[in-house]
Structure formats: structure tokens, C-alpha cells
């Protein structure tokens, strides 16, 4: 009886491992979609004002999850920064800022410092 139980347990574990290995593989089509999405995305860096805790950053993050066209986002507190990768065919920086401001915070596009020319 013990041997049967051990054999059945082993077969069950092998079966689960096999199923998990198959479900987690990306198909060629999914790999191609991921690559295309990464190529199409633009990155937007925003300075967020009004955040006082990590809950504030979660509030903004949850609002950004609802925006069609946002591929990836990261809202940092402390630091008051948001880095957002978006599909410019589906959304715009102004639309993203509007979503953040509707949650009660202020957002503005960060300007990159000009690069110094080396002599």
C-alpha cells in the first residue's frame, strides 16, 4: 500500500511539472508580439508632486494599469518619479498626465539635462 502511494505521488509530481513546463513557454507568436511591443514603446519620465507615502504611489499605479496603451510603469516613492513605457499609437503623454492628475496628484514631464560636449 505504501509503495502504491509513493508511486502515485511521484507520478503526480512528474505530471504537474510537465504541465507547468508546457504552460509557461511562450509561443513564437507571443515572442514576436513581445518584441514588437518593446520596439513600439516610448518612455516617459514624470515628476509627481503630492505623494506622501507608498500608498500614494500604489494609487497612481492602479490608475495607470487601467490606461490602454501603457506597456509598463513604475511609480517611485520616495523619489516622486514615474517611469512609463507606452504605445504612442494608443495613448499620449498628455492623456497619461491627465489620468494621474485625476487621482489627485500633479505630474509634469521631466526635462533631460543637456549633455555636455567633451573637448
Q: Report the principal-axis shape.
A: elongated
Average pLDDT score? 78
List the uncertain runs: 19-24, 31-37
Distance between the termini: 82 Å
Explain this structure.
The protein is α+β, with helices and mostly antiparallel strands and 119 residues long. It is built from four helices and four strands, in the order H-H-E-H-E-E-H-E. The protein has helices at 2-23, 28-40, 54-65, 93-102; strands at residues 42-49, 70-76, 81-86, 106-109. A four-stranded antiparallel sheet has the order 2-3-1-4. The longest helix has 22 residues, at 2-23. 14% of the residues are buried.
List the helices and strands and how they pair.
Blueprint: H1 2-23, H2 28-40, E1 42-49, H3 54-65, E2 70-76, E3 81-86, H4 93-102, E4 106-109
Antiparallel strand pairs: 1-3, 1-4, 2-3
